[in-house]
Write a structure and sequence with these properties.
elongated
Length: 143
């Protein structure tokens, strides 16, 4: 009877336990190591990653909000895996929120000026725009 089962499945590995987990993909995903940075094992250690994430987050407040985007990009695996690296995740999630708020404010400002213009601001428009500074100061030579 043992020989009959061998002939039915000639490529079957006798060392593999098929009863515990029928889905091999889930076992591969669960056993994969999660790295804190996008460059995997070539990147920073976990201790250095905490320091870098904290620095990017704090320097984002120094009128450098693009560092928040860099923080989110570089530590993308931390954003994807919610339970991995809780010390880093705190700074990266806050960076994502800060960059989203900054982008929304910048977009609102740009759309207000580009779509609204003189119709929206009325006579104050000439004081808000910068393309007529030379005319206002008499530097254009056209007066």
């Amino acid at each position: 009877m043992e020989e009959a089962s061998r002939s039915d499945e000639p490529n079957r590995n006798p060392n593999v336990d098929r009863s515990s987990n029928p889905d091999p993909l889930s076992s591969i995903i669960s056993s994969a190591h999660v790295w804190p940075t996008i460059d995997g094992p070539l990147g920073l250690t976990e201790e250095a990653s905490v320091d870098y994430a904290r620095r990017f987050y704090k320097f984002g407040f120094a009128l450098l909000p693009w560092l928040w985007a860099v923080n989110c990009f570089y530590f993308w695996p931390v954003l994807r895996h919610s339970r991995a690296f809780p010390q880093i995740r705190n700074h990266v999630v806050r960076s994502a929120i800060g960059f989203s708020v900054f982008t929304a404010l910048l977009l609102a400002w740009a759309l207000t000026f580009s779509l609204g213009g003189e119709e929206l601001f009325g006579p104050v428009w000439d004081k808000l725009v910068m393309y007529n500074v030379a005319d206002r100061l008499g530097l254009s030579g056209l007066a």
